[in-house]
Design brief:
The protein has 138 residues and is an alpha+beta fold. The protein has a single domain, classed as START domain (Alpha-D-Glucose-1,6-Bisphosphate, Chain A, domain 4). It is 27% helix and 44% strand. A 7-stranded antiparallel beta sheet has the order 1-7-6-5-4-3-2, covered by helices on one side. The longest helix has 29 residues, at 109-137. It is globular.
């Protein structure tokens, strides 16, 4: 298993942050590593979509957890494994604290950690700062 997480703070309210999180078609506004996102259905457990990063192939995802105003999790298949992206608010914090966690599991987790995980780890802090700024301006 390969994991990485980063926590940021924002002056935005949890509703403002949730508005950005729960709009997959706009994820590219704060995650500049994304070229295209599609979503088929409401922002709820079981909804599927696709993500295409600036570098790399198009991949599918499914929302596996959606706790309104608290967090969500999505999973994408990898060859012989899974990429899990978990997003969570720390309740009762001011300024609001939120965490994004990347988890890669499976037989090739260490390989995908070096290829995909390390790139996500480099990009994640800046993406989260952009997310915080966009949420604050909402």
């Amino acid at each position: 298993m390969w994991t990485f997480e980063h926590t940021e703070t924002t002056a935005a309210s949890v509703r403002q942050l949730w508005g950005r999180w729960s709009t997959p078609l706009a994820w590219g506004e704060w995650d500049h590593g994304l070229r295209e996102v599609t979503s088929i259905g409401p922002f709820d457990v079981g909804t599927r979509g696709t993500v295409r990063r600036v570098t790399g192939p198009r991949t599918t995802f499914v929302l596996t957890r959606v706790d309104e105003l608290e967090g969500f999790t999505l999973m994408s298949p990898l060859p012989l494994g899974t990429l899990t992206l978990d997003h969570q608010v720390t309740p009762g914090t001011e300024p609001l604290r939120f965490t994004h966690r990347v988890i890669i599991t499976g037989a090739l987790a260490s390989l995908f950690g070096r290829i995909l995980g390390n790139r996500l780890a480099r990009e994640l802090p800046e993406s989260m700062r952009r997310l915080a700024a966009l949420a604050e301006s909402a």
